């Protein structure tokens, strides 16, 4: 797969197609999210990272996924409202996608092919798996669901 991160597109929560090319030249943090997960409070930390570093070139991209314990069963409108009301999320959020299996979103197939998940293969284990991509669109680091956003700062700062 010789694709680049920028070759992909996804639908925003409003249904509009968004090309990853829009984020060229930025340091990107891609996260598969869920609204009813024990890790959901990470939205607060992700928003903090976004606010702290967005003027230096960081963008956080949230991809809701319902593949883990049915923890994202809402519609796009419900997801958007939940994220804004509860966590003040202002970073780009996308329509619900699949991250594993044959119908996984092509972007996540790409990220998993570039940054496998260690001894268990590339499969995403749970919500809030994070992928850090440099300004040239190269996936650099993968973080597990329990890695809290604050612990990503030193890695983000290196890439800004």
Give me the CATH superfamily: Glutaredoxin
Biggest pleated-sheet summary: 4 strands, mixed
Number of helices: 4
Overall CATH class:
Alpha Beta
CATH architectural label: 3-Layer(aba) Sandwich
Helix content: 25-40%
State which percent range the strand residues make up: 15-25%
The SS-based structural class is: alpha+beta
Q: Sketch the topology as an H/E string, one letter per element.
A: EEEHEHHEEH
Average pLDDT number = 94
Number of strands: 6
- Globally, the shape reads globular
Strand order, main sheet: write it out: 4-3-5-6
- Report, as a whole number of angstroms, the end-to-end distance: 26 Å
CATH fold-level assignment: Glutaredoxin
Radius of gyration: 14 Å
Number of domains: 1
| Spans where pLDDT lies below 50 across 5 or more residues | none
Structure description:
By secondary structure, the chain is of the alpha+beta class. A hairpin with a 5-residue loop joins strand 1 (9-11) and strand 2. The longest helix has 12 residues, at 42-53. It has a single domain (5-159), classed as Glutaredoxin (3-Layer(aba) Sandwich). The strands form 2 sheets. A 4-stranded mixed β-sheet has the order 4-3-5-6, covered by helices on one side. It has helices at 42-53, 76-87, 106-114, 153-159, and strands at 9-11, 17-19, 27-33, 58-64, 130-133, 139-143.
Which descriptors apply to this entry?
Glutaredoxin; four-stranded mixed β-sheet; alpha+beta; 18% strand; 160 residues; 6 strands; 4 helices
């Amino acid at each position: 797969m010789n694709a680049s991160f920028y070759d992909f597109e996804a639908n925003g929560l409003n249904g509009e197609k968004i090309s990853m090319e829009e984020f060229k030249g930025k340091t990107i943090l891609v996260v598969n999210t869920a609204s009813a997960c024990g890790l959901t409070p990470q939205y607060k930390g992700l928003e903090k990272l976004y606010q702290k570093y967005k003027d230096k070139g960081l963008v956080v991209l949230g991809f809701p996924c319902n593949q883990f314990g049915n923890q994202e069963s809402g519609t796009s409108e419900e997801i958007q409202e939940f994220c804004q009301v509860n966590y003040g999320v202002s970073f780009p959020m996308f329509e619900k996608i699949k991250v594993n299996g044959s119908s996984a979103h092509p972007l996540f197939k790409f990220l998993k092919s570039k940054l496998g998940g260690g001894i268990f293969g590339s499969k995403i284990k749970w919500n809030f798996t994070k992928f850090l991509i440099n300004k040239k669109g190269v996936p650099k680091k993968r973080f597990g669901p329990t890695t809290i956003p604050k612990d990503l700062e030193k890695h983000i700062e290196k890439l800004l």
